[in-house]
């Protein structure tokens, strides 16, 4: 099924670029306009119009921020939309500007959706907060509609904890709406002050009181505001004292704050309004300790025309719910406000947000997948029931949170009244299912992997049992060995472990079953070469595991040592060739070499005879070790007698002497590239040679001792070998065996062998 990819519209792209620009300016990071125009050439005309209007409005509003300012405590100022609270106050003056019926006094905050001024409503002579959209002429219509949407949403809400809207209007193209002016500060400012040392907070309170006592008569107009600001500063100082005292009053205050905000949100939700931008900066604390919910600029109103589509990432990311941060269309509802309020309460309790990454992508990942640290792990004095309430509000899935803000308010009331709360900490099964709902693909993958592992384990167990049965039938293994193998099979936890044990079993068979068995050298070599190939593959697969690398390297090194020993033992089997004059002549040995060779072959023959005395007296492993040591010593002596060309020629003659048996050597078969069919044919030919004498005796008996007419005309071994090889293999084989030996080769144990001519 092909997924349809939707390209953002021109308006959506312009809106995203302008919003990023305004947010960057608010963070004191002025973007490079030239770079922005170069990056978005298709938006060039719209961006230039925005910059021109923006610069003009900034020029017109500059006097509002530059004329007649008096220092007052920071606590007296209002914070909106995450803006930084101001630090100045001024009396009304006609020179500062006017919008409609409102005389502007000072700027008290600004954010992505506008600028907030303290103003006097001239007709009613009352102090108001005037929110202005200064860029309405340049920002796309959707931004203007959102501003109007905020005013309409807030104007329909009447609650003791929601900032009321008085009027909406526009003047000279500048859109605004008036609200009740709240003396105090945002919870963001409260949190920032609570992070300061207690001594610094007390010092600020003292300065505020001294400033009030030294008030000049000309400041009488601002006296009421200063008193309220002082009250707010005192409240913060009291909260700091209670927080450090450990009496629990601070936690009760946080619960009261959360309950007031939850009740306000429940009222908004009942009227069809979802705030979608709840955060400390949008919750205002007045000097009486009352909470006011402000800034409905990103509110979702039931019945709107898609201006606040739930697929958009809106609001402050750090406080956004997982469904908001992931842009899940259709899932952002009133439970998102419950989550954001839980984030605010979390930060009030420990004075830090649960997710603190500065990287946007990492922050998105944490919001979507990471569990917030438990509150008591940061501050063990936080009551368990309050922690449970906050953490339930912060669950990733909306269905796992409180279903309404009213339920959250009721829980907080139960906490304040010291009654049992309804929320319970999720046990491990609930946590698993919550995780599973967020990661269904991981569950499907794990289930598929579990099925595959189960099927693989079952098949492996069946194969192992079958092999064990055959082994018992063929080799009559003891019950103890069977139990050991069965235990190994049951302890297998992965396919790699099973394969490793299978290779180790090949190695064990080579060492215990095939070692010191005449005629088994080639089979043993083939088994070891197979094991070595697997070890090398294991090393490649487990290169990231240092422990496995060390173990596998030791095993591979041991296999290589045994293979080297087998090569030495195979070379030792050619000593019987050095007793034959035809071979000595072919090697062109000097008289001195012949003398030394005669002494060496006699010594080897004596060693071979004496080796039978060890049978039954020492262990097979010890006997094998002694044989290998003698073979290495004899090979060293042989190499000291022969020149390099003579050594090469001796190996060629050795291959000639082996006949069909040479093709049982895995290295020879690999060098020639023999197929399975060719190797099988050579085994049949070798069997015919080995058991040919039995057939000859039977034929003589049937013919009363007379040979058949066809005897004596059989092809030579060399000709029969060449018949089975391809042209390329023939050339390679002839290079390996060299020129044919002139004169026959006496088989091992013949008249001139070291066994028959030992001293």
Give an account of the 3D structure.
- 57% of the residues lie in helices and 8% in strands.
- With 759 residues, it is an alpha+beta fold.
- The protein has four domains: 11-182, 2-Layer Sandwich (Phosphorylase Kinase, domain 1); 243-425, Transferase(Phosphotransferase), domain 1; 442-568, no CATH class; 570-737, no CATH class.
- A six-stranded antiparallel sheet has the order 3-4-5-6-8-7. Strands 9-11-12 form a three-stranded antiparallel sheet. A two-stranded antiparallel sheet has the order 1-2.
- Mean pLDDT is 74; it is low at 1-6, 63-95, 213-227, 305-314, 705-713 and 750-759.
Query: What oligomeric state is this?
Result: single chain
What order do the strands of the largest sheet run in, or round the barrel if closed?
Answer: 3-4-5-6-8-7
Distance between the termini: 87 Å
What's the number of structural domains? 4
The low-pLDDT segments are 1-6, 63-95, 213-227, 305-314, 705-713, 750-759
CATH topology-level name of the largest domain: Transferase(Phosphotransferase), domain 1
Mean pLDDT: 74
CATH architecture identity of the largest domain? Orthogonal Bundle
CATH class category of the largest domain = Mainly Alpha
Number of strands: 13
Going by helix content, strand content and strand pairing, the class is: alpha+beta
CATH superfamily of the largest domain: Transferase(Phosphotransferase) domain 1
Radius of gyration: 47 Å
- Overall geometry comes to elongated
Q: Report the portion of residues in β strands.
A: 5-15%
């Amino acid at each position: 099924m092909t997924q349809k990819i939707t390209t953002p519209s021109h308006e959506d792209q312009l809106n995203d670029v302008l919003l990023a620009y305004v947010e960057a300016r608010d963070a004191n990071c002025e973007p490079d306009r030239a770079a922005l125009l170069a990056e978005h050439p298709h938006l060039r005309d719209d961006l230039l119009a925005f910059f021109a209007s923006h610069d003009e409005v900034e020029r017109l509003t500059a006097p509002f921020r530059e004329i007649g300012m008096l220092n007052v405590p920071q606590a007296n100022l209002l914070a909106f939309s995450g803006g930084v609270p101001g630090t100045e106050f001024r009396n009304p003056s006609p020179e500062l500007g006017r919008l409609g019926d409102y005389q502007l006094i000072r700027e008290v905050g600004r954010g992505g959706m506008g600028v907030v001024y303290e103003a006097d409503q001239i007709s009613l002579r009352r102090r108001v907060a005037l929110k202005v959209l200064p860029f309405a002429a340049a920002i796309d219509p959707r931004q203007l509609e959102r501003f109007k949407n905020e005013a309409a949403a807030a104007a329909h809400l009447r609650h003791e904890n929601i900032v009321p809207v008085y009027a909406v209007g526009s003047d000279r193209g500048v859109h605004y709406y008036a609200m009740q002016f709240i003396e105090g500060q945002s919870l963001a400012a409260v949190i920032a002050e609570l992070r300061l040392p207690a001594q610094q907070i007390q010092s600020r309170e003292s300065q505020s009181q001294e400033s009030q006592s030294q008030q000049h008569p000309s400041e009488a107009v601002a006296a009421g505001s200063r008193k309220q600001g002082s009250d707010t500063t005192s409240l913060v100082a009291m909260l700091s004292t209670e927080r450090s005292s450990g009496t629990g009053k601070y936690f009760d205050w946080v619960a009261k704050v959360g309950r007031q905000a939850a009740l306000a949100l429940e009222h908004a939700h009942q009227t069809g309004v979802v705030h979608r931008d709840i955060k400390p900066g949008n919750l205002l604390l007045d000097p009486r300790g009352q909470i006011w919910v402000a800034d409905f600029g990103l509110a979702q109103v039931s019945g709107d025309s898609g201006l606040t589509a739930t697929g958009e990432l809106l609001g402050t990311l750090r406080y956004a719910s997982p469904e908001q941060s992931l842009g899940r269309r259709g899932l952002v509802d009133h439970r998102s406000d419950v989550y954001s309020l839980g984030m605010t309460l979390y930060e009030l309790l420990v004075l830090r947000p649960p997710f603190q990454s500065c990287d946007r992508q990492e922050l998105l990942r944490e919001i979507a997948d990471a569990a917030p640290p438990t509150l008591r792990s940061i501050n063990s004095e936080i009551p368990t029931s309050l922690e449970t309430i906050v953490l339930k509000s912060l669950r990733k899935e909306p269905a796992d949170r409180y279903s309404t803000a009213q339920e959250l308010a009721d829980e907080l009331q139960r906490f304040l009244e010291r009654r049992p709360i309804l929320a319970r900490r999720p046990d491990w099964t609930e946590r698993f299912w919550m995780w599973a709902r967020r990661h269904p693909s991981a569950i499907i993958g794990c289930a598929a992997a579990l099925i595959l592992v189960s099927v693989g384990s079952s098949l492996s167990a069946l194969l192992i049992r079958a092999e064990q049965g055959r082994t018992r039938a063929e080799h009559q293994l003891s019950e103890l060995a069977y139990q050991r193998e069965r235990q190994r099979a049951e302890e297998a936890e992965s396919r790699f472990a099973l394969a490793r044990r299978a290779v180790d079993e090949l190695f064990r068979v080579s060492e215990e079953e095939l070692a010191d068995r005449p005629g088994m050298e080639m089979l043993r070599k083939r088994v070891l070469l197979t094991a070595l190939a697997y070890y090398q593959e294991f090393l490649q697969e487990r290169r990231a595991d240092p422990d496995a690398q060390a173990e596998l390297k030791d095993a591979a090194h041991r296999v290589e040592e045994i293979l080297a020993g087998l090569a030495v033992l195979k070379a030792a089997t050619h000593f019987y060739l050095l007793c034959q004059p035809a071979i000595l002549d072919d090697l062109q040995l000097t008289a001195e070499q012949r003398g030394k060779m005669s002494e060496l072959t006699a010594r080897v023959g004596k060693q071979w005879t004496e080796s039978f005395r060890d049978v039954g007296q020492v262990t097979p492993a010890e006997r094998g070790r002694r044989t290998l040591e003698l073979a290495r010593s004899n090979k060293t002596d042989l190499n000291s007698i022969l020149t390099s060309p003579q050594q090469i020629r001796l190996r060629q003659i050795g291959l000639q002497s082996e006949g069909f048996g040479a093709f049982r050597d895995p290295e020879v078969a690999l060098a020639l590239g023999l197929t399975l069919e060719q190797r099988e044919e050579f085994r049949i030919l070798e069997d015919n040679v080995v058991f040919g004498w039995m057939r000859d005796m039977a034929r003589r008996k049937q013919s009363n001792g007379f040979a058949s007419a066809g005897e004596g005309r059989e092809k030579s071994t060399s000709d029969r070998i060449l018949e089975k090889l391809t042209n390329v293999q023939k050339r390679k084989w002839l290079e390996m065996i060299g020129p044919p030996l002139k004169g026959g080769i006496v088989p091992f144990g013949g008249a001139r062998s070291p066994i028959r001519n030992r001293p």
